[in-house]
Amino acid sequence: MPSQPQQNEARALLALLTESLGSKTNEHKQLEEALAKLKVLGRDANNVSAIYDADGMKTLGSYAFGDFPPSIRHEALRCTANALLLLPETRKYLLKLGFDKQAADALRDADEDEEFLLSRIMFLLTYDPGIDMETLVTEHGLAESIVQRLARHAEQAKNTKRSGLTGQVYMAMLETLKLLFNATSIKTDQAAKFKPAVAHICRILEYTDVPSPPLQPPINLLINALANLDIDGGDTQTAETRSAVARLISILALAIEGHPPTELDTTAVPLLTVLRKINDTAPPDLRGSMKARLLPDDKERDQPLGKSSSLASQLLRLTTSSGMLNLSEAISGLMFELSGKDANEYVKNVGYGYAAGYLMTHKIPIPESAKSQGNGESSSQVPINPITGQRLDKEPDIELPNMTREEKEREAERLFVLFERLKATGVVNVKNPVEVAKEAGRVEELSDSDSDE
Protein backbone atom coordinates (compact mmCIF):
# COMPACT_ATOMS: atom_id res chain seq x y z
CA MET A 1 0.00 0.00 0.00
CA PRO A 2 1.52 3.34 -1.03
CA SER A 3 2.34 5.83 1.67
CA GLN A 4 3.39 9.45 1.73
CA PRO A 5 6.90 8.57 2.96
CA GLN A 6 7.42 6.24 -0.02
CA GLN A 7 6.21 8.90 -2.43
CA ASN A 8 8.52 11.43 -0.81
CA GLU A 9 11.45 9.02 -1.01
CA ALA A 10 10.82 8.40 -4.70
CA ARG A 11 10.67 12.14 -5.35
CA ALA A 12 13.93 12.71 -3.46
CA LEU A 13 15.70 9.92 -5.37
CA LEU A 14 14.63 11.29 -8.74
CA ALA A 15 15.69 14.78 -7.71
CA LEU A 16 19.12 13.46 -6.74
CA LEU A 17 19.47 11.69 -10.08
CA THR A 18 18.38 14.76 -12.03
CA GLU A 19 20.79 17.02 -10.17
CA SER A 20 23.66 14.58 -10.66
CA LEU A 21 23.20 14.66 -14.43
CA GLY A 22 24.25 18.29 -14.43
CA SER A 23 26.83 18.37 -11.66
CA LYS A 24 28.23 14.82 -11.95
CA THR A 25 29.05 15.04 -8.23
CA ASN A 26 27.82 11.60 -7.18
CA GLU A 27 29.81 8.42 -7.54
CA HIS A 28 28.59 5.66 -9.81
CA LYS A 29 27.83 3.41 -6.85
CA GLN A 30 25.53 6.05 -5.32
CA LEU A 31 23.73 6.49 -8.64
CA GLU A 32 23.26 2.76 -9.03
CA GLU A 33 21.88 2.47 -5.50
CA ALA A 34 19.50 5.39 -6.09
CA LEU A 35 18.19 3.82 -9.28
CA ALA A 36 17.82 0.42 -7.59
CA LYS A 37 15.72 1.97 -4.80
CA LEU A 38 13.64 3.92 -7.32
CA LYS A 39 13.08 0.69 -9.27
CA VAL A 40 11.63 -1.01 -6.19
CA LEU A 41 9.42 1.96 -5.33
CA GLY A 42 8.34 2.18 -8.97
CA ARG A 43 6.74 -1.25 -8.84
CA ASP A 44 3.78 0.54 -7.27
CA ALA A 45 2.50 3.14 -9.73
CA ASN A 46 1.07 5.26 -6.90
CA ASN A 47 4.58 5.93 -5.60
CA VAL A 48 5.85 7.44 -8.85
CA SER A 49 2.85 8.57 -10.91
CA ALA A 50 3.33 12.19 -9.84
CA ILE A 51 7.04 12.32 -10.70
CA TYR A 52 7.18 10.29 -13.91
CA ASP A 53 6.24 13.19 -16.12
CA ALA A 54 8.19 14.34 -19.19
CA ASP A 55 11.07 15.61 -17.04
CA GLY A 56 11.16 12.48 -14.90
CA MET A 57 11.25 10.21 -17.94
CA LYS A 58 13.96 12.36 -19.48
CA THR A 59 16.11 11.74 -16.40
CA LEU A 60 15.57 7.99 -16.54
CA GLY A 61 16.25 7.92 -20.29
CA SER A 62 19.45 9.90 -19.84
CA TYR A 63 20.81 7.24 -17.52
CA ALA A 64 19.43 4.35 -19.57
CA PHE A 65 21.05 5.47 -22.83
CA GLY A 66 23.82 7.74 -21.60
CA ASP A 67 27.55 7.21 -21.16
CA PHE A 68 27.37 5.24 -17.93
CA PRO A 69 28.58 1.81 -16.77
CA PRO A 70 26.31 -1.13 -17.69
CA SER A 71 25.13 -1.57 -14.09
CA ILE A 72 23.72 1.99 -14.03
CA ARG A 73 22.21 1.74 -17.50
CA HIS A 74 20.52 -1.57 -16.65
CA GLU A 75 18.95 -0.19 -13.46
CA ALA A 76 17.69 2.83 -15.38
CA LEU A 77 16.28 0.57 -18.10
CA ARG A 78 14.43 -1.45 -15.45
CA CYS A 79 12.94 1.72 -13.98
CA THR A 80 11.90 2.79 -17.47
CA ALA A 81 10.32 -0.57 -18.32
CA ASN A 82 8.30 -0.52 -15.07
CA ALA A 83 7.07 2.98 -15.84
CA LEU A 84 6.00 2.08 -19.39
CA LEU A 85 4.11 -0.96 -18.12
CA LEU A 86 2.34 0.62 -15.14
CA LEU A 87 1.88 4.17 -16.46
CA PRO A 88 0.98 4.01 -20.18
CA GLU A 89 1.01 7.81 -20.45
CA THR A 90 4.80 7.71 -20.01
CA ARG A 91 5.16 6.08 -23.43
CA LYS A 92 4.44 9.27 -25.32
CA TYR A 93 7.10 11.09 -23.26
CA LEU A 94 9.79 8.63 -24.34
CA LEU A 95 8.70 8.83 -27.97
CA LYS A 96 8.81 12.64 -27.95
CA LEU A 97 12.26 12.51 -26.40
CA GLY A 98 13.47 10.09 -29.10
CA PHE A 99 14.42 7.34 -26.69
CA ASP A 100 12.73 4.74 -28.90
CA LYS A 101 15.37 5.43 -31.54
CA GLN A 102 18.15 5.18 -28.99
CA ALA A 103 16.73 1.88 -27.77
CA ALA A 104 16.68 0.53 -31.34
CA ASP A 105 20.29 1.62 -31.83
CA ALA A 106 21.34 -0.02 -28.55
CA LEU A 107 19.66 -3.32 -29.50
CA ARG A 108 22.23 -3.87 -32.28
CA ASP A 109 25.03 -4.88 -29.92
CA ALA A 110 23.00 -5.86 -26.85
CA ASP A 111 23.91 -8.85 -24.70
CA GLU A 112 21.11 -10.98 -23.26
CA ASP A 113 20.57 -8.71 -20.22
CA GLU A 114 20.27 -5.63 -22.39
CA GLU A 115 18.25 -7.46 -25.05
CA PHE A 116 15.65 -8.41 -22.46
CA LEU A 117 15.29 -4.82 -21.22
CA LEU A 118 15.52 -3.07 -24.59
CA SER A 119 13.11 -5.45 -26.30
CA ARG A 120 10.62 -5.06 -23.47
CA ILE A 121 10.83 -1.28 -23.66
CA MET A 122 10.42 -1.31 -27.44
CA PHE A 123 7.55 -3.81 -27.14
CA LEU A 124 5.69 -1.54 -24.71
CA LEU A 125 6.32 1.50 -26.90
CA THR A 126 4.71 -0.23 -29.88
CA TYR A 127 1.35 0.14 -28.12
CA ASP A 128 1.53 3.90 -28.50
CA PRO A 129 0.06 5.03 -31.85
CA GLY A 130 2.74 7.71 -32.08
CA ILE A 131 5.58 5.25 -32.72
CA ASP A 132 7.25 5.65 -36.11
CA MET A 133 8.05 2.04 -37.03
CA GLU A 134 9.05 2.98 -40.58
CA THR A 135 11.87 5.19 -39.30
CA LEU A 136 12.95 2.67 -36.68
CA VAL A 137 13.39 0.04 -39.39
CA THR A 138 14.90 2.15 -42.16
CA GLU A 139 17.16 4.45 -40.14
CA HIS A 140 17.86 2.53 -36.94
CA GLY A 141 18.04 -1.07 -38.17
CA LEU A 142 15.36 -2.47 -35.86
CA ALA A 143 14.45 -5.36 -38.20
CA GLU A 144 18.07 -6.38 -38.66
CA SER A 145 18.69 -6.23 -34.90
CA ILE A 146 15.69 -8.46 -34.18
CA VAL A 147 16.79 -10.95 -36.85
CA GLN A 148 20.33 -11.02 -35.44
CA ARG A 149 19.08 -11.63 -31.91
CA LEU A 150 16.88 -14.51 -33.09
CA ALA A 151 19.76 -15.99 -35.08
CA ARG A 152 21.78 -16.04 -31.88
CA HIS A 153 18.94 -17.71 -29.99
CA ALA A 154 18.56 -20.32 -32.75
CA GLU A 155 22.21 -21.25 -32.37
CA GLN A 156 21.88 -21.32 -28.59
CA ALA A 157 18.79 -23.56 -28.84
CA LYS A 158 20.66 -25.94 -31.14
CA ASN A 159 23.55 -26.17 -28.67
CA THR A 160 21.27 -27.02 -25.75
CA LYS A 161 20.32 -30.33 -27.44
CA ARG A 162 16.65 -29.93 -26.46
CA SER A 163 17.35 -29.17 -22.82
CA GLY A 164 15.90 -25.77 -23.68
CA LEU A 165 16.97 -22.18 -23.23
CA THR A 166 16.89 -21.03 -19.63
CA GLY A 167 17.44 -17.98 -17.47
CA GLN A 168 18.07 -14.59 -18.98
CA VAL A 169 18.70 -16.02 -22.46
CA TYR A 170 15.22 -17.54 -22.45
CA MET A 171 13.58 -14.37 -21.11
CA ALA A 172 15.40 -12.23 -23.68
CA MET A 173 14.14 -14.44 -26.51
CA LEU A 174 10.54 -14.15 -25.30
CA GLU A 175 10.70 -10.35 -25.23
CA THR A 176 12.26 -10.21 -28.70
CA LEU A 177 9.56 -12.49 -30.10
CA LYS A 178 6.85 -10.26 -28.60
CA LEU A 179 8.56 -7.21 -30.09
CA LEU A 180 8.75 -8.91 -33.49
CA PHE A 181 5.04 -9.70 -33.42
CA ASN A 182 4.04 -6.14 -32.51
CA ALA A 183 6.51 -4.55 -34.91
CA THR A 184 5.17 -6.61 -37.82
CA SER A 185 1.59 -5.85 -36.78
CA ILE A 186 2.22 -2.16 -37.53
CA LYS A 187 1.66 -1.46 -41.20
CA THR A 188 4.83 -0.27 -42.98
CA ASP A 189 6.54 -0.79 -46.33
CA GLN A 190 9.40 -2.62 -44.59
CA ALA A 191 7.85 -6.06 -43.93
CA ALA A 192 10.44 -7.77 -46.15
CA LYS A 193 13.23 -6.76 -43.77
CA PHE A 194 11.77 -8.96 -41.03
CA LYS A 195 11.46 -11.95 -43.36
CA PRO A 196 14.87 -13.56 -42.60
CA ALA A 197 13.50 -14.27 -39.11
CA VAL A 198 11.42 -17.13 -40.60
CA ALA A 199 14.37 -19.51 -40.85
CA HIS A 200 15.63 -18.70 -37.34
CA ILE A 201 12.19 -19.20 -35.77
CA CYS A 202 11.87 -22.54 -37.56
CA ARG A 203 15.23 -23.61 -36.16
CA ILE A 204 14.24 -22.57 -32.64
CA LEU A 205 11.02 -24.58 -33.02
CA GLU A 206 13.02 -27.62 -34.06
CA TYR A 207 15.24 -27.53 -30.98
CA THR A 208 12.67 -26.48 -28.37
CA ASP A 209 10.77 -28.95 -26.24
CA VAL A 210 7.01 -28.55 -26.38
CA PRO A 211 5.40 -27.77 -23.00
CA SER A 212 2.08 -29.19 -21.87
CA PRO A 213 -0.31 -27.81 -22.88
CA PRO A 214 1.68 -26.71 -25.93
CA LEU A 215 0.27 -23.28 -26.84
CA GLN A 216 2.09 -21.32 -24.16
CA PRO A 217 5.52 -19.60 -24.13
CA PRO A 218 7.75 -20.09 -25.94
CA ILE A 219 5.76 -22.12 -28.51
CA ASN A 220 2.83 -19.71 -28.88
CA LEU A 221 5.18 -16.71 -29.22
CA LEU A 222 7.20 -18.47 -31.93
CA ILE A 223 4.01 -19.34 -33.81
CA ASN A 224 2.48 -15.86 -33.42
CA ALA A 225 5.63 -14.29 -34.83
CA LEU A 226 5.65 -16.71 -37.78
CA ALA A 227 1.99 -15.95 -38.51
CA ASN A 228 2.88 -12.27 -39.06
CA LEU A 229 5.79 -12.92 -41.44
CA ASP A 230 5.78 -13.44 -45.19
CA ILE A 231 6.52 -17.07 -46.09
CA ASP A 232 7.32 -17.63 -49.77
CA GLY A 233 8.40 -20.45 -52.01
CA GLY A 234 12.03 -19.96 -51.08
CA ASP A 235 11.24 -20.53 -47.41
CA THR A 236 9.20 -23.68 -48.03
CA GLN A 237 12.11 -25.28 -49.91
CA THR A 238 14.42 -25.15 -46.88
CA ALA A 239 15.12 -28.03 -44.52
CA GLU A 240 14.25 -25.79 -41.56
CA THR A 241 10.74 -25.12 -42.82
CA ARG A 242 10.10 -28.74 -43.74
CA SER A 243 11.12 -29.80 -40.25
CA ALA A 244 8.99 -27.03 -38.79
CA VAL A 245 5.90 -28.26 -40.67
CA ALA A 246 6.10 -31.69 -39.05
CA ARG A 247 6.67 -30.00 -35.71
CA LEU A 248 3.73 -27.65 -36.15
CA ILE A 249 1.34 -30.45 -37.07
CA SER A 250 2.45 -32.42 -34.00
CA ILE A 251 1.88 -29.30 -31.87
CA LEU A 252 -1.60 -28.95 -33.39
CA ALA A 253 -2.45 -32.54 -32.40
CA LEU A 254 -1.16 -31.95 -28.86
CA ALA A 255 -3.07 -28.67 -28.63
CA ILE A 256 -6.38 -30.35 -29.47
CA GLU A 257 -5.78 -32.86 -26.71
CA GLY A 258 -4.36 -30.41 -24.15
CA HIS A 259 -6.44 -27.23 -24.48
CA PRO A 260 -10.18 -26.75 -23.92
CA PRO A 261 -12.03 -26.04 -27.19
CA THR A 262 -12.86 -22.51 -26.04
CA GLU A 263 -9.14 -21.73 -25.71
CA LEU A 264 -8.42 -23.16 -29.14
CA ASP A 265 -10.74 -20.60 -30.74
CA THR A 266 -8.03 -18.00 -30.12
CA THR A 267 -4.77 -19.83 -29.38
CA ALA A 268 -4.88 -22.32 -32.29
CA VAL A 269 -5.81 -19.87 -35.04
CA PRO A 270 -2.25 -18.47 -35.50
CA LEU A 271 -0.95 -22.05 -35.81
CA LEU A 272 -3.51 -22.83 -38.51
CA THR A 273 -2.62 -19.54 -40.20
CA VAL A 274 1.05 -20.54 -40.38
CA LEU A 275 0.14 -23.91 -41.91
CA ARG A 276 -2.05 -22.15 -44.50
CA LYS A 277 0.78 -19.77 -45.39
CA ILE A 278 3.23 -22.63 -45.82
CA ASN A 279 0.78 -24.66 -47.90
CA ASP A 280 0.18 -21.69 -50.18
CA THR A 281 3.73 -21.78 -51.55
CA ALA A 282 4.80 -25.33 -50.65
CA PRO A 283 6.25 -27.64 -53.32
CA PRO A 284 4.12 -30.68 -54.24
CA ASP A 285 5.92 -33.15 -51.97
CA LEU A 286 5.59 -30.94 -48.88
CA ARG A 287 1.94 -30.21 -49.66
CA GLY A 288 1.39 -33.94 -50.10
CA SER A 289 2.79 -34.68 -46.65
CA MET A 290 0.56 -31.98 -45.15
CA LYS A 291 -2.52 -33.43 -46.86
CA ALA A 292 -1.65 -36.89 -45.57
CA ARG A 293 -1.65 -35.61 -41.98
CA LEU A 294 -4.46 -33.07 -42.12
CA LEU A 295 -7.08 -34.54 -44.47
CA PRO A 296 -9.06 -37.78 -43.93
CA ASP A 297 -7.65 -40.82 -45.69
CA ASP A 298 -9.55 -43.69 -47.29
CA LYS A 299 -9.15 -45.91 -44.23
CA GLU A 300 -11.48 -43.57 -42.34
CA ARG A 301 -14.31 -43.98 -44.85
CA ASP A 302 -15.58 -47.22 -43.39
CA GLN A 303 -17.65 -44.88 -41.22
CA PRO A 304 -18.86 -41.29 -41.67
CA LEU A 305 -15.97 -38.81 -41.67
CA GLY A 306 -15.26 -37.18 -38.33
CA LYS A 307 -15.97 -40.32 -36.32
CA SER A 308 -12.45 -41.70 -35.95
CA SER A 309 -9.69 -40.60 -33.56
CA SER A 310 -7.36 -39.28 -36.29
CA LEU A 311 -6.15 -35.67 -36.31
CA ALA A 312 -8.21 -34.97 -39.42
CA SER A 313 -11.39 -36.24 -37.74
CA GLN A 314 -10.68 -34.21 -34.62
CA LEU A 315 -10.30 -31.10 -36.77
CA LEU A 316 -13.55 -31.83 -38.60
CA ARG A 317 -15.43 -32.20 -35.34
CA LEU A 318 -14.09 -28.85 -34.13
CA THR A 319 -15.57 -27.13 -37.18
CA THR A 320 -19.03 -27.99 -35.87
CA SER A 321 -18.40 -26.86 -32.28
CA SER A 322 -20.83 -24.22 -31.09
CA GLY A 323 -19.57 -20.66 -30.74
CA MET A 324 -16.06 -21.19 -32.14
CA LEU A 325 -16.35 -19.28 -35.40
CA ASN A 326 -12.67 -18.30 -35.64
CA LEU A 327 -11.45 -21.86 -35.20
CA SER A 328 -14.04 -23.29 -37.60
CA GLU A 329 -13.13 -20.73 -40.27
CA ALA A 330 -9.39 -21.40 -39.89
CA ILE A 331 -9.73 -25.21 -40.03
CA SER A 332 -12.15 -25.16 -42.96
CA GLY A 333 -9.97 -22.65 -44.79
CA LEU A 334 -6.91 -24.84 -44.32
CA MET A 335 -8.70 -27.95 -45.59
CA PHE A 336 -10.16 -26.07 -48.57
CA GLU A 337 -6.68 -24.80 -49.49
CA LEU A 338 -5.16 -28.26 -49.02
CA SER A 339 -7.80 -29.38 -51.53
CA GLY A 340 -6.30 -27.00 -54.09
CA LYS A 341 -9.09 -24.45 -53.50
CA ASP A 342 -11.27 -26.76 -55.61
CA ALA A 343 -14.81 -27.11 -54.24
CA ASN A 344 -15.30 -30.51 -55.83
CA GLU A 345 -12.06 -31.83 -54.32
CA TYR A 346 -12.92 -30.24 -50.98
CA VAL A 347 -16.30 -31.98 -50.83
CA LYS A 348 -14.66 -35.26 -51.83
CA ASN A 349 -12.06 -34.86 -49.08
CA VAL A 350 -14.31 -33.89 -46.15
CA GLY A 351 -17.89 -34.64 -47.23
CA TYR A 352 -20.55 -32.10 -48.10
CA GLY A 353 -21.84 -32.13 -44.52
CA TYR A 354 -18.63 -30.50 -43.29
CA ALA A 355 -17.96 -28.46 -46.44
CA ALA A 356 -21.38 -26.83 -46.88
CA GLY A 357 -20.99 -24.04 -44.32
CA TYR A 358 -17.62 -22.86 -45.62
CA LEU A 359 -18.71 -22.98 -49.26
CA MET A 360 -21.89 -21.03 -48.60
CA THR A 361 -20.21 -18.46 -46.34
CA HIS A 362 -17.62 -17.74 -49.03
CA LYS A 363 -20.19 -17.86 -51.84
CA ILE A 364 -18.41 -20.73 -53.57
CA PRO A 365 -20.71 -22.64 -55.97
CA ILE A 366 -21.74 -26.06 -54.73
CA PRO A 367 -20.15 -28.75 -56.94
CA GLU A 368 -22.39 -31.10 -58.88
CA SER A 369 -20.88 -34.06 -57.04
CA ALA A 370 -22.59 -32.86 -53.86
CA LYS A 371 -25.99 -32.47 -55.53
CA SER A 372 -26.38 -36.04 -56.72
CA GLN A 373 -26.60 -39.14 -54.60
CA GLY A 374 -23.81 -41.66 -54.92
CA ASN A 375 -21.61 -39.55 -57.25
CA GLY A 376 -18.69 -39.22 -54.84
CA GLU A 377 -15.54 -41.30 -55.15
CA SER A 378 -12.62 -41.83 -52.82
CA SER A 379 -9.04 -41.81 -54.05
CA SER A 380 -9.36 -45.58 -54.59
CA GLN A 381 -12.35 -44.96 -56.90
CA VAL A 382 -14.76 -46.58 -54.43
CA PRO A 383 -18.19 -44.86 -54.48
CA ILE A 384 -18.79 -42.75 -51.40
CA ASN A 385 -21.69 -40.89 -49.89
CA PRO A 386 -20.96 -37.25 -50.85
CA ILE A 387 -22.70 -35.96 -47.72
CA THR A 388 -21.01 -38.07 -45.04
CA GLY A 389 -17.88 -39.15 -46.92
CA GLN A 390 -18.53 -42.80 -46.00
CA ARG A 391 -18.09 -45.62 -48.51
CA LEU A 392 -21.47 -46.66 -49.86
CA ASP A 393 -20.64 -50.34 -49.45
CA LYS A 394 -19.94 -49.76 -45.76
CA GLU A 395 -23.19 -47.98 -44.94
CA PRO A 396 -25.33 -50.08 -42.59
CA ASP A 397 -28.53 -51.65 -43.83
CA ILE A 398 -31.56 -49.90 -42.45
CA GLU A 399 -34.14 -52.22 -40.96
CA LEU A 400 -37.63 -50.88 -41.59
CA PRO A 401 -40.40 -51.64 -39.12
CA ASN A 402 -43.41 -53.71 -40.16
CA MET A 403 -46.09 -51.34 -41.42
CA THR A 404 -49.74 -51.71 -42.36
CA ARG A 405 -50.85 -50.79 -45.85
CA GLU A 406 -52.33 -47.49 -44.65
CA GLU A 407 -49.06 -46.61 -42.83
CA LYS A 408 -47.06 -47.40 -45.98
CA GLU A 409 -49.28 -45.16 -48.06
CA ARG A 410 -49.03 -42.26 -45.59
CA GLU A 411 -45.25 -42.61 -45.38
CA ALA A 412 -44.92 -42.78 -49.19
CA GLU A 413 -47.02 -39.65 -49.57
CA ARG A 414 -44.98 -37.82 -46.93
CA LEU A 415 -41.67 -38.78 -48.56
CA PHE A 416 -42.98 -37.82 -51.99
CA VAL A 417 -43.82 -34.31 -50.74
CA LEU A 418 -40.45 -33.95 -48.97
CA PHE A 419 -38.49 -35.00 -52.05
CA GLU A 420 -40.44 -32.59 -54.24
CA ARG A 421 -39.71 -29.72 -51.83
CA LEU A 422 -36.04 -30.66 -51.62
CA LYS A 423 -35.72 -30.81 -55.40
CA ALA A 424 -37.39 -27.41 -55.70
CA THR A 425 -34.68 -25.78 -53.57
CA GLY A 426 -32.00 -26.66 -56.13
CA VAL A 427 -29.52 -27.46 -53.33
CA VAL A 428 -29.61 -31.20 -53.94
CA ASN A 429 -30.45 -32.68 -57.33
CA VAL A 430 -32.31 -35.85 -56.38
CA LYS A 431 -34.88 -37.85 -58.26
CA ASN A 432 -38.02 -38.73 -56.39
CA PRO A 433 -37.83 -42.46 -55.54
CA VAL A 434 -41.49 -42.84 -56.48
CA GLU A 435 -40.65 -41.63 -60.00
CA VAL A 436 -37.66 -43.98 -60.15
CA ALA A 437 -39.79 -46.94 -59.11
CA LYS A 438 -42.53 -46.05 -61.56
CA GLU A 439 -40.08 -45.76 -64.46
CA ALA A 440 -38.59 -49.12 -63.53
CA GLY A 441 -42.02 -50.75 -63.55
CA ARG A 442 -41.92 -51.51 -59.85
CA VAL A 443 -45.15 -49.64 -58.99
CA GLU A 444 -48.22 -51.85 -58.70
CA GLU A 445 -51.73 -50.51 -58.25
CA LEU A 446 -53.48 -52.23 -55.35
CA SER A 447 -57.20 -52.64 -55.17
CA ASP A 448 -59.12 -51.88 -52.03
CA SER A 449 -59.62 -55.59 -51.52
CA ASP A 450 -55.88 -56.35 -51.42
CA SER A 451 -54.65 -57.42 -48.02
CA ASP A 452 -51.81 -55.77 -46.07
CA GLU A 453 -48.38 -57.23 -46.60
UniProtKB/TrEMBL annotation:
Residues 370-383 have a biased composition (Polar residues). GO terms for cellular component: cytoplasm. Pfam families: Ric8. Residues 14-41 form a coiled coil. This is Synembryn-A. Belongs to the synembryn family. The keyword Coiled coil applies. SUPFAM superfamilies: ARM repeat (SSF48371).
